[in-house]
Amino acid sequence: MDEPLRVGLVGAGPWARTVHAPGLADHPATRLTAVFTRRAEAARELAQPYDADVCTSLDDLLGRVDAVAFAVPPATQAELAVEAAGAGKHLILEKPIAADVAGAERLAEAVSTAGVASLVMLTLRYATATRDWLAGLAAAGAWSGGGVRWLSGGLLGGPYASSPWRQADGGTLADVGPHAFDLLDAALGGIERVTSAHRGPHDLWHVVFEHEGGALSSATLSLRMPLRPTVVEFVVYGEHGYRTLGRQDGGAGQSFTAMLDDFAAMIDTGTTTHPCDVRRGLHLQRLLETARSLAA
């Protein structure tokens, strides 16, 4: 692109301040142009260091940008992102992309109708270590099963513990479920069926999947376990052995930069499909809803 992409940021919470804003401002292909949030003072505080405009409405922001990045609760994102897509703006979305499947379907349809680019910030998928791990798995093939353990006290304290949507019923599933399910799906083949799901004390989830080709996997997830450090481990196994992937510390900023690389390339080439686009978000939303239903 001859000029940096003008990006507006909707939201001014901890994730917007620590990842979105600096990432958009520092990337050579993007410029943080405008900020909108329903809390005007928070928008001013976020925008000032980057010399970005403060907008008083979503329409105001849409008139100033080429793309919109969202760092707001899922239900709010689904509502506002439909408007942004309808205005022809490319989208950077957070996971889950909506509060329910109906909202995710409306958003996916709006993106398809508008023909805009979209990417979901599935942090692990953009990390170099993850991409190398997945490439190695694909080259070897013939994996029989796998699983993930994601256990932390993230909702017991810290910058995201006060987030209402994360503290809602089943907050662990909505927050880290998309990351876990996405990576199992990418490693072992598309998830065809959620065979069982159970939620126990400490918001501890056990979910079992069947994949294309017959592989089986399971996810054990909780953000209300008082563990230090956080445990994040993915495994796959089969005739080629046992392979693991752990979480990389400090990787959110690097992953966001890698996502922006892909986002800029999509827009520059007129591409609207990507392994982590809004359709991926819809697939993951359906898995989340099925797990909730089975656990209930």
Describe this structure in words.
42% of the residues lie in helices and 25% in strands. It is of the alpha/beta class. Strand 2, helix 2 and strand 3 form a beta-alpha-beta unit. The mean pLDDT is 95. This is Dehydrogenase.
Q: Please work out how many helical segments DSSP would assign.
A: 10
Tell me how many strands there are: 12
Series of secondary-structure elements, N-terminal to C-terminal: EHEHEHEHEHEHEHHEEEEEHH
- Mean pLDDT rating: 95
CATH topology (level 3) name of the largest domain: Rossmann fold
Features:
single chain; about 300 residues; alpha/beta; Rossmann fold; Dihydrodipicolinate Reductase, domain 2; 2 domains; six-stranded parallel β-sheet; six-stranded mixed β-sheet; 10 helices; NAD(P)-bd_dom_sf; GFO_IDH_MocA-like_dom; Gfo/Idh/MocA-like_OxRdtase_N
